[in-house]
Amino acid sequence: MNLFEAININKQFANHKALSDVSISVPEKSIFGLLGPNGAGKTTLIRIINQITAPDSGQIYFSGKKLSSSHIKDIGYLPEERGLYKKMKVGEQTLYLAQLKGLGKQEATKKIKYWFEKFDILPWWDRKVEELSKGMQQKIQFIITVLHEPKLLIFDEPFSGFDPINVNLLKDEILKLRNNGATIIFSTHNMASVEELCDHIALLNNSKKILDGKVFDIKNHYKSNTFEVNYSGFSGHISSLLNNNFELKDQVSENGFTKVKIKIAENSSSNDLLKDLIPHLKINSINEIIPSMNDIFITKVNENVGN
Predict the structure, then answer these.
(1) Which of 127, 165, 182, 244 has the largest CB neighbor count within 10 A?
(2) pLDDT at residue number 306
(3) Domain 2-220: which CATH number of 3.30.420.10, 3.30.1600.10, 3.40.50.410, 3.40.50.300
(4) DSSP per residue, 128-177
(5) What is the DSSP string of 249-304?
(6) Cross-strand bridge partners of residue 263
(7) Segments of the chain scoring below 50 in pLDDT
């Protein structure tokens, strides 16, 4: 079942078309990657979901009902451009913002202390926000976003400014939130994070959706039946062993080992390749090359240039 659906969303700003008939479906308890280059329309769609702006046309559904102001309490949004009151004390500000989300003071205090201990911020409770590092400020904003346990969480570049240790900390927490029942829309330019976290993605470019689906299915769709073979014990050129069903794409030799990339024709298989090679050399490893989300992102965006 889908927690969120946007159907044929259009949005125009003056002479700029921000969204053109964009539709996405976000399954419950999943992490959905909203991807695209700068200016693709991601931020506009996120603002529409948060009811900061409205679409010119199209329909939006939340838990099967038309999106309305009553759903604001069910959404947590961490924007790319962060903003805290610099002069306020950390604990005081977090408590104030938690109460704006509908939490009572006692419940909010208990939850804030839980998260502050988890992120090692509790000693900073009575310090002003401006005294904190950028990374610590971002941890506080993450906490504020998730504190009221909304059904839908929207993270826009959540790892910006974090060191690798804190990136991993946040990734673990995002996965825990999903496993505990939250649905997450995750917008980033970091394709490695997409592969680690996302179940589904939609790729926008020039206001249009140009790709969507499960990450696993997309990667398998774009693979080219190409294998990387690492071998030793053969000093000649491997092309002399290949028939017309196999195309050598690359070959690198070092320290007695050779690594090649071979594309296999549709009417053949990796087993057929091994039959041809094994009598002549020692196979150390063979792996199918699956394209990364970064490769797919670049390919699809370049295909869409001018469209």
Answers:
(1) 182
(2) 60
(3) 3.40.50.300
(4) BGGGS-HHHHHHHHHHHHHTT--SEEEEESTTTT--HHHHHHHHHHHHHH
(5) EEEEEETTEEEEEEEE-TT--HHHHHHHHTTTSEEEEEEE-PPPHHHHHHHHHHHT
(6) 226, 247
(7) none
